[in-house]
């Protein structure tokens, strides 16, 4: 089973890019973030024609998350994290072929410090609580999405320029470390502990051409899935397509 996460940065405006990648990569499960579309405008028919069932949690102009399954219908188990009541569409959860998949879009948090950064840390606390509860059930789980966190200096081009950014501040890295300490495994870093791997390149300053990227998109595995992990990677070339998202798809292969 190939499970991917892709911050599509506007599901309708970049639908041709998404459909092209789905046809090329044929992932079994896809977590999408930043739909930037109300639920009624989610392109379910186009995705169904491409062979994918879907559940989604939209929001006009901002945020929005979805889970796609090739040749299947995801069974939604949760919408929004327990305790989160901010009205933003940032989490959805579904069962697909015996795996529980949590798709998330964690707040950016800038400028930091400030109210937005405090809201990011509060959201992270809700995620930590839910992630811990899910692990207690001892089922195969993947938490996937745009975490808006660069866990280490290896995950950012020129880290000295990002010390005070909300994606890189010590409080955020500590929250991510607490998540891993619960028993989750960062799949990319597990397989490539020393490699400089990016999943995001800004549209400004020729970041893509210079490979001045960030690793923001992660797939975390529950303990029972770690032994089944067979591969992981970034479809980096998709970032170079016309009208591409500023993120590239990230994937894992599990047995």
Give a verbal description of the structure.
There is one protein chain. With 255 residues, the protein is of the alpha+beta class. It has a single domain (2-254), classed as 4-Layer Sandwich (Deoxyribonuclease I, Chain A). 25% of the residues lie in helices and 25% in strands. It contains seven helices and twelve strands. The protein has helices at 15-25, 44-49, 115-136, 170-181, 187-191, 207-210, 223-226; strands spanning 2-7, 29-33, 52-57, 65-70, 75-79, 91-96, 99-105, 141-146, 185-186, 217-221, 229-234, 250-254. Helix 3 packs parallel to helix 4. The radius of gyration is 17 Å and the shape is globular. The model has no long low-confidence stretch (mean pLDDT 97). This is Exodeoxyribonuclease III. Its cofactor is Mg(2+); Mn(2+). InterPro entries: AP_endonuc_1, AP_endonuclease_F1_BS, Endo/exonu/phosph_ase_sf, Endo/exonuclease/phosphatase, ExoIII-like. The active site is at residues 105, 146, 247.
Please sum up the structure shown:
The protein is of the alpha+beta class and 255 residues long.
